[in-house]
User: Fold these one by one.
Assistant:
Number 1:
Amino acid sequence: MDQHFIFLLLGLANGAVFAALALALVVTYRSSGVVNFATGAMALFTAYTYSFLRQGELLILIPGLPVSEHIGTLSFWPAAALAIAISAGLGLLLYALVFRPLRTAPPVAKAVASIGVMVVLTSLMSQRLGVNPIAVDPILPTNIWTIGNVRVSSDRVWIALVVVAFAFALAAMFRFTPFGLRTRAASENERGAYVSGIRPDRLAAVNWMISAAVGGVAGILIAPIVTLSPLSYTLFIVPALAAAILGRFQYIVPAVLGGLAIGMLQSEVTYLQSQHSWLPSSGLAELVPLVLILAVLVVRAKPLPTRGALIQQTLGRAPRPRRIALTAAVWSVVGAVALAVLQESWRAALVTSLIFAIIALSLVVVTGYAGQVSLAQLTLAGVAGFLLGPLTLSWNVPFPIAPLLAALAAAVVGVVVGLPALRIRGLPVAVVTLALAVALEAIWFRNTDLVPSDGKDIGGPTFLGIDLRARVGTDFPRLPFCLLVLGTLVVVAIGVAKLRTSRLGSEMLAVRANERSAAGSGVHVVRVKLLAFAIGAFIAGLGGALLAYKQGNVTFDSFTILVGLALFATVYLAGITSVSGGVLAGMLAATGIVYLAMQRWLALGDWYATITGVLLVLTVIRNPEGIVGPFHSLLERRSKAQAPPEPAHDGLRAVAPLPERVREPALSVRDVTVRYGVVVSVDHVSFDVPAGAIVGLIGPNGAGKTSLLDALTGFVDSTGSVALAGRLLDGLAPHERVRAGLGRTFQHIEIYDDLSVLENVGVGRTRRGAADLGALLQLVDLVEDAHRPAGELSQGRRQLVSIARALASDPQVLLLDEPAAGLDTTESIWLGERLRDIRDAGTTIVLVDHDMQLVLSLCDEIHVLVFGSLVSSGPPELVKSDPQVASAYLGGTRAEQPTGVA
Amino acid sequence: MAPLLECRDLRAGHGRVTVVRPIDLAVDAGTVLAVLGPNGAGKTTLLSTIVGLLPRQGGEVLVGGKAVKAGRPDVAGRAGIVLVPDDRALFGALTVQENLRVAARRTAGIDEVMDLFPALRLRRRVAAGSLSGGEQQMLAIARALVQQPRVLLIDEMSMGLAPVIVEDLLPIVRRVADESGAAVVLVEQHVGLALEIADDVVVLVHGEVALRDRAASLRGDHARLEAAYIGGSDLFATTN
């Protein structure tokens, strides 16, 4: 028992640091929406600054200047104060230069930028200060306290107390001061802040200084206990993220207590694994934050509270690959010639680049296409790499099968990594994959039970008598192996390019753009996400296997999380949304061909990581499509200038009208009620929609029209029942209702600007729906725009794209939510004609709109919804003359006025 | 005398999409302009652009004859333009008092504004999120008033509120215009109520001005209004 207690107390010191960093994470996130992965690196910088100041040196990280400037030895308080002031300045600088320009960017882009900052800071410090740990004199009293039989050093307790005191002081400041009040207000509602005369960006700048200072305090205090080294401090971020998640990135005190608890638990499990031989000898400590993160994010499945920001930019476009066969052939020849011509270290660097290009392509699939930020792709490559040893040497699996099996195993692990993404989306996926990667590395790759300290040997590949080994004697890398790598890359690249143009690829982009609208188009979101993770992991696994073959012996060094993060940075930098970006990322990757050139010719190899990080941050701010983005735009403009206008489809046929209208109502709504908390938004609404009709649903704002559509399509929980041509839909998920034949569009058109019109419409095809897309485009008069990106179209045509996408599932009933919003009168009339054509082609329509002219001229029957209840139903002439309707539309009291309705 | 708020050739929209085609508006001190029109006509976009929450696509906004920089809510705020947004954008976790303190130019202002809304004074320690719809709307207006606006923009005040409550709130808007001399722009869907307190009326349809007149001359003449609303169709014709 006493031993357990000692280890729990020992963990207090680390716990205090996690707590302080979690506190910094919460403060930064609340004020600016940035999950700052660089928090640990910033604390390390402060700690270094402090330790240099104590020796009379002012640390200067800027390359080209001396590492430090002598300013005379400082005692504790001045040194600490100056270091913390410098840290706050760094926070302000980062906000002003990086995160303020990104304030309207999606959270994922902000997080990627912070990863860039982390890479820059870590590599600058490793480069200028070396990786050798630096010891710092004790700051807090180190008496030995004896409690019963337990003896513990007092500094562990003191550091925890200091951090807790800071947490309560900050919590009180946010609670009671005007600054705190404004910060809370702005973090809850940015729009409200603006209309209250507050400037959220100024508040964010101050909060960044506070969080940098708090992280700095922790960095200084822990320095005497954990010696200073870039790796250990940077990775403090993982348990700190877990603690911040415990505080839901909102609450300071739970985050701080969570941090302390994680530190203590880690210490305890480290003790346990030394006591029990059946426990793995390493990695349990890294499991603690992972388990906590999974428990909170996945089991509770609550998203991080989003901040009510004003506008959101999209991620970069994912351009359609062109002339895949030709491109592949040309680059295969170029690659083969280069491999044959280059010798020794140059050839080795090129083959490394080719392998990293394969792993980078896995990120293109998972992140670029499907929008899931996975920080575990290199770890997944490692899974295949480490499995290849036993597969080839213990079980003698022959060549093409062994790496494929290893990659398949990686795919299985990849699906497991992706499982949490089914319940969470956006940034938490990045956090979970990071924690998983760290845990996997500790519990497997670095575990000497599983991997001998001199690495795991790999059996050399031979195929049909050809020796494909990378190294024979001093001959390295051998050409046959290099060609094998090139061939694999070409196959993978073609596959990834084909995926982009396939139906699954469109579905991935749909999920990336908006999961809700993807589900509304009949996309099975869960399946698409898992496939993306599986395909991505399989590709990463192939890369990992090749890397293992190349080295002949695998150690954890090749697959560490820091290398993985740097690779992620490189891919994002090169262009994470396209095949060319992925391949370029391979060229740019550490120890690859460009790296070698930088080292040989410019002597810049040591600065490689720093430069990558800086470029990454600039890329996120300037150009989300990466380096290759501008080239794609250029190509697109050129091909548009050259290509003659697409001729209309030849084989278009008119859509046959339904042979016979069924007597049964197409849609039957009974007693549907929607409650949000205590508010009843839709109150026992019942009506029937006859087959082949256009039925209007009108009512003032806030009457519950959209809530009713959401209820019918399964987007909100409701009571009552909905039947489509006699088939009950109750309890079905949105995409299942779409497949059953109930299509819908959204009030805010949720089409995918990245995709062409044809691809947008194609997303809507389901297994049931075999709608001929050519005929469909003709029906809605979009044939000429078929191959234009949807983002270029006018508002009216965008509406038609979203309607056509809903029609692609061949719905029996189509629900339209304000299709005329934002259209001028001419466009609205044109839209009405298209809707009539659609009805004549056999689709029953329910139309919600405020454009009275459109509704009155088009609908066979109109229902009027006021305060969630139907107040009037009937043909247009009847509804027009209903006084309740007039009153609902032109002011509530009009009906009561003597001059008003009779 | 020059109008207190003036918009010249103002074009507004989201990204590439233009929602409000070039429009001219002029509102004198102490008067209320009602902006009416069906949903999607661009009323909210217009107000958001005037207050700088959306970038302008063209044209000028002037307060007291001085041009106001586009797309900068803080600059518009210093010029005295204050918006009551349609979603109210309250700080739900903060109390009534705190919501007002966040926005107040001076603390004494809070008390004066509370005089207009005695119901709020009673609930000053309640979280804004727990207020009734009507009280929330009062708080949204009060939060705008403590900023001592010269130009007050109110978007869809009646959204989700029962007509009785709106009938209580609108006279307060009239009083604010009369007593503080602010220029008020009121976007409203309860046409009858809006006409009662407004001085001037503009009807927007599909982002264009379909009708512009004195409120007084429209009060007895709903037919013209309805015609403008629905683009000349005969909705409600039988009822007049």
Number 2:
Amino acid sequence: MDWILLLEQCLNGLQLGILLFLLAAGLTLVFGIMDFVNLAHGSLYMMGAYFAATFTSWTGSFLLGAALALPAALVLGIVVEVVALRTLYDRDHLDQVLATFGLILFFNELVRIVWGPAGLDIPLPAFLETSIEMLPGVPYPTYRIAIIATGLIVAGGLYGLVSHTRIGMLIRAGASNREMVGALGINIRLLYTLVFGLGTVLAALAGLMAAPILTVQIGMGETILILAFVVIVIGGIGSIRGAFVAAVLVGLIDTVGRASLADLLRLFLTNQVAETAGPALSSMLIYVLMAAVLAIRPQGLFPPRGH
Amino acid sequence: MRYGPWRSALTEPLLQLQDLTKWFGGLVATDSVDLDVAEGEIHAIIGPNGAGKTTLVGQISGEVRPDAGSISFAGKTITKSPAHARSLMGIARSFQITSLFLDFTVLANVALAVQAHAGHSFRLWQDATTDAALRDPARGFLELVGLEGRADDIAATLSHGEHRQLELAMALATNPKLLLLDEPTAGMGGDESARMVELLQRFRGKFTILLIEHDMDAVFALADRITVLHSGRILASGAPEDIRADRAVREAYLGEAEE
Amino acid sequence: MRFSPSVAVAAVAITLLAVVPLITNFLEEPFYLGLILRLMILAIAATSLNLILGFGNMVSFGHAAYMGIGAYVVGIGTFHAIEDGIGWLANGFLHIPLAIAASSLAALVIGAISMRTRGVYFIMITLAFGQMLYFVGVGLEVYGADDGLSLYQRSEFGGLVDISDNTQFYYLVLVLLLATLYGTKRLVASRFGLVIRGARSNERRLASIGIPVYRYKLIAFVIAGAICGVAGVLLANRTDFISPDMMHWTRSGDLIIMVVLGGMGTLFGPLYGAAAFLLVEEFLSGVTEHWQIVFGPLLILVVIFARGGIAGAIRALEKRPD
């Protein structure tokens, strides 16, 4: 067993998990507090990546590009919320699904018109292109470590925000009892816009961090969005803690599973069958995990209280 | 005195709650409740708002799972049985906040209840909307509660009082042994309430009735025994005269309800 | 039968469908024959979704996967029929029952797991399972992976009908569409159908009167999947091509749009919805290749303002005093 390879895959899994967490956290906040299904969350992830690509090419610096992309994405998210999504908060989930599906079509086409159908690349600054030796003889890309570190810092910040600040308390209160928060004189509209904005920034951050590793392309949001939904379902809607645990779990299983499944299968089956079945089965791993969790706990690992 | 004149060592109670407990977060909604309901009796549960009456009924009908304790019905333990199984055993329920098939006609509402107790519904071809085997009994139950004139109206168009009548008709249509009625006269004016009470009195002896009510006139007209619930526990339980006379009950509740 | 706008429009629609081949053959425009053929196939799929979505309020976002399963049965069958010379693998009388069996099984497993959840969870889980099947398709290198597989022959029905002739194929599909519509009509009015509609109306009430709701919803889900599998068989034959894209969640989204646009919980709604969807797609894509940028907001507007769909609008005509 190649332990170094396994360690590397575990780190990759952790990195994927962190990205998934950023996406899932925003999604679960919006679900949990506003009871709103937002299929277009992946589009905000995509816009974060595209904005970062553009600003990086204008300024010549990835870090500057990223720093500019975040507020740009935030503005976009707030505009979308105010113009299109506000009317849908009281509607049933099917309406929300359809409307945000329409938003996805709109954004994908908008990107196609403005940036063209081909994907974009984001060049990384030199100091991020290196590797750090985690253990003697085990180099690991610096950039991926940066993703993990950034993600953990944001996760910590989010946790601090939700548990230790007044806004966080309002968010938690709003999650369990919307009418009461309104009755307390808090501007629910503003709270919702804030929460949506927070979710947007998280998604955009995930998008721009993922961009240098994956290609920036149309539809990149949807693929990872489904994974993010699976994460929320496993973790429990409305739970940040659940999103974190589930995201890391999903990231690890998907990455390590994909890498080792083909090898595992080769032990039992012929080479040819393993080659065919391997990729097909490894795509199923996450969904099998989700099915297993649902079979035992239909509300997820950390279900919201009072449900 | 826990048990009124109905206690008999020979007859097992139809419904028996033992040490029933339910928590919601940090709040205890049902606090170690012991209750027996004898067959054929009309038993009223009263108590101030928030006393946990609806939660208690919910645990009997199967919508709410208790955290501790047991429930037995007609000698069988049903604590873990799902709601639909309890209905098939003979427990019928009406809801405090009207719960009907609002987009169906009044007749269709009752017909569906009849259908639920007429064997399985895996019939995929025969037209059930004109099936006399369902509609005739349904009409019968509507006549019983006085709603036959509204049979073909959409349930959503009925008045609140008529909704309560429809709830009762549906409960009756499921061939019940025990009727769990959650505030059957809620929102009704004087005349309507009186009619409902008169209807329920006709059922005396035919069904066992467990009744949640705020209307004290109705309670004292109907009840063979009364249980007073307060903050999830039983404050007192017994014959109506004893309850009326009970000091603690008067202080906690009867005084308020008399207005 | 009462003469009402709903019945009139439906009668006109069916009559038009019946005469399309005569018109297109006369005008020598086979493209339109193929287009209406595709419309009818999508209408069958949408009708199957309407059964659980429109009448039962089960928002399945993975319904296209069953169409994919049916399509792959045909694709894999005809592939091996040619490659390995096993003739009977291309037989349509094998494809249809096998597609029904395969989609029913998939729907049973997926439904059994998904139905343990409610609301948003249910939507997401059905979406996830649909994607899972998509990825399985992508992983099947032998059958083209994500490039797909071309079919070099269509399902064979012996001497009964030769569906490589589009006109004969058209009438086969029309018959199947009418059968599906009639079957749906009877199902919805049956005891089973009333239970499903009761579940949409008030699931808690349904359980409290003694119906084991899960059981019935699951069976409805399986029936819907089975019918959609048949639509998949027809689609594969129509396009002479199969690919995992048929199972992609956006295809499921398209089906939902058709059901909602046409009018949920109505008999002919899915047909109108499929027609509207194709019409908009054809028309808009003729105007600009960036038609989706219009379609997206259009969809949002329809959701906000026109929830009853087309059938709802027709029905609204009945209420107006003349």
